[in-house]
Amino acid sequence: MNDEIGVFYNGGNFPVAITDKNGEFETLGFTQGVYDVGIGINTSQLYDKVFLRQNINSIQLNKDIDFDFNLSNPIRIKNPLPGTTIEEKFEVSWDEVKGVDYYTVEAITFGNPKKKSGSSFRHPLHHENGEYKIEGNNIKFNIKKLNENIGIGGLSFDGEEMLVNPSGILGTFTPNIEYPIVVNGYDKVRGI
User: Is the pTM of this model over 0.70?
Assistant: First the structure.
């Protein structure tokens, strides 16, 4: 098992700092600049955790700072369960999370939806009333309306040939395909 927990990169090169197994370190020698921050744990070890972040992809280093990695249990989806066949209208519900002011819901679609491969897209979904920031623990969708409003274009390249994807004819959400649904929770400063 890899004991590294935090890895700091400078401009996409090799790591410039790695934490100990407790995720703690203090180091000198960082120059001012922008650094990417990542967690150096194999994702298979984090299958039941989710990274709580402050909506940042990098840190600007020009003074001493503390940067904490906080992991939590993921939001549990109550409905629909995996493998559920849905109709034109359906509802997604989840367990409420303490400290969350609103949720966002996204569906993930793939260039090859049957194999869940190729390019992937996250589609922010809105409640039937049009709201993207969801208060409470459920949201209702209409697949037909979503297919009319969300478009990937339906085209992709295979070498030098341009091909029509199933979504170009059937819409973004193709019948008889499972789509992952992601629910994110945020506090008032978009920090969870």
Answer: no
